[in-house]
Design brief:
The protein is α+β, with helices and mostly antiparallel strands. Helix 3 crosses helix 8.
Length: 323
């Protein structure tokens, strides 16, 4: 395995407990800065997996989308199969995932349940909250190494299973998730992506998709814990919400949950174990207005801390890769 490239000689803050912070003065045209420094940002990502660019002064959606596009290879991607639909803001820019402000969003790799997830994730803070609300990041290779070998071996052998039940009670409807109300088009998409599906008598949709839980990074080959086993687990739901939905739809009718690749349930103890490994390898930095966070999505998981006040963080993703 070759060593990652050395980062360029830039004003890079590497203090412990925080993601690398690249201090810069973006000047009057942040998109021009992004085009000029794209290679440097990529070098930092190759070494550290994440970088917070501070000093670009991002304040509006148009400039923010332009910066993200310049740092990508071929522009920003649209959303796919969301469990909680984001708002599409134009030019590939997305709102943050809807999630209760009072609840922690545990770490996960974006779209790890599709065969060709984005290589890079972008988050920009247009307005920080009064308190909290950071976007913590975690090294997926370190998380993998921290998990019990027997558990890792099982996930490597079986993969993980995402089970979804699209209905009108919580989360995205199937029309929202697949971007169409045409059942035939949904079925065609599911077949093309290796997703098993069945329709309920009342028009609801149930799907199952088996994906790898551990992947090797396409550049340096390091093994990474790459999935949403904990984040999309039924044990990630608020206990009262989970009890209500279980009473309403039964244990097999929850809007989403995760299982081992052979279909067996994943217990709350395993989900807690994964989240403890994430917590032990988490970096965070409070948002400042105008910040841009860039992540290697294969190597680096992300989440969201609870917060108070208004928080405007927008997102983008780019460079799909077939794993």
């Amino acid at each position: 395995m070759s060593a990652p490239p050395r980062p360029p000689a830039v004003n890079l803050d590497l203090r412990a407990g925080r993601p690398p912070i690249l201090w810069t003065d973006g000047g009057p045209d942040p998109a021009a800065w992004a085009a000029q420094h794209r290679h440097e940002v990529r070098q930092i990502l190759a070494r550290y997996g994440s970088v917070l660019v501070r000093g670009l002064g991002l304040r509006d959606q148009g400039r923010t989308a332009a910066v993200m596009a310049r740092l990508s290879t071929a522009g920003l991607l649209g959303e796919r199969e969301p469990f909680a639909p984001r708002t599409q803001l134009g030019d590939g820019l997305l709102s943050a995932t809807p999630w209760p402000a009072s609840q922690q969003m545990c770490l996960h790799n974006e779209l790890s349940y599709v065969p060709d997830p984005p290589s890079f994730m972008f988050f920009a803070c247009l307005a920080p909250p009064t308190s909290g609300g950071a976007t913590p990041v975690g090294d997926a290779a370190a998380v993998l190494a921290a998990l019990p070998p027997a558990l890792v071996a099982r996930f490597e052998r079986e993969g993980w299973l995402l089970v979804r039940h699209y209905n009108d009670d919580i989360g995205a409807s199937w029309a929202e998730a697949f971007g169409t109300g045409d059942r035939g088009a949904v079925e065609h998409y599911c077949r093309s992506q290796g997703i098993e599906f069945t329709w309920d008598a009342d028009g609801g949709l149930r799907t199952r998709q088996r994906r790898r839980a551990v992947v090797r990074h396409p550049v340096d080959g390091r093994p990474c814990w790459f999935n949403q086993v904990a984040f999309l687990s039924e044990w990630a739901l608020d206990p009262d919400v989970r009890e209500y939905l279980t009473d309403l739809h039964g244990p097999d009718g929850l809007p989403f949950t995760t299982r081992y690749g052979n279909g067996e349930p994943i217990g709350e103890d395993v989900v807690n174990l994964v989240n403890e490994a994430y917590a032990a390898h988490t970096l965070r930095e409070p948002w400042q207005a105008g910040d841009l966070l860039v992540l290697d999505n294969i190597r680096t998981a992300h989440g969201r801390d609870p917060y108070e006040g208004d928080r405007t963080v927008v997102a983008g993703m780019s460079d799909p890769i077939r794993l």
